[in-house]
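Archive entry. Fields below.
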Amino acid sequence: MRMRKKKNSDSRLNSCERVLYRHEGAPMCDPAAAMGMAGSPVYLEIGAGKGRFAVQTAARHPDCAYFAMERVTDCVVLCAELAVGGEYGECKNLRFMIENADNLLHIFGRGTVDRIYLNFSDPWSKKGYAKRRLTHRRYLALYMNLLRDGGELRFKTDNAALFEFSLEEIGAMGLECEVVTRDLHSSEWNDGNIMTEYEESFSSRGIPINMLRLKKPDGFLPELAPEFLSKNYRG
Ligand SMILES: C[S@@+](CC[C@H](N)C(=O)[O-])C[C@H]1O[C@@H](n2cnc3c(N)ncnc32)[C@H](O)[C@@H]1O
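PREDICTED_STRUCTURE:
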């Protein structure tokens, strides 16, 4: 997400410390414990943007520990200010992280996440950039290692080409989606749908929203790309 540089982003972040999570040390075996919710289900959003989906989804699932990851610091300033603003309650079960998805294995232990949300991920449309897409098979393998058996990946996008690419990547891994729709808002799956900022903008222009849900099969632990395992790799 392109964003004009925010003034005083450090001090603004400091005043929202209670909704931030800064990881240090070994990967977490029980991530919910970081919010005083040991043993609770863990939801993870990658690429939270301005954060509205995160605050609304965390408010709807108060018994789940919700981590929202975003690599752009200035976006996290907006996310965190939205969360502490009070409009969505106390957000006790929500933490934002300034992190890159490439570092996930250094933060979350394997098999510790119940649900992963990818919303309107960057399409990286140019030739030669497929590996950077967050639904490329190397990321799918990463998610499958992070998810518990029966855990779920949920993906929404306006971008039809990215959606078809994602379905192909899923198929290439021998996996099958539980749900696929190319027009979420007209589908039976729209009940209770929480719209992101991008989603609202695209759908107001009449662009249909694609959505898929994929369950992790029991014991499915595909091989990980070496760059995600390297200690020195901070993507
Ligand atoms: C197109 S925006 C969508 C924002 C939001 N999810 C929405 O739907 O309104 C994609 C967001 O993902 C973030 N992002 C992209 N790649 C990322 C990565 N590898 N790790 C963390 N965040 C990432 C970008 O910084 C950007 O804010």
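CURATOR_NOTE: The pocket of S-adenosylmethionine is lined by residues 1, 46-49, 69-72, 75, 100-102, 119-122, 196-199 (CB under 6 Å).
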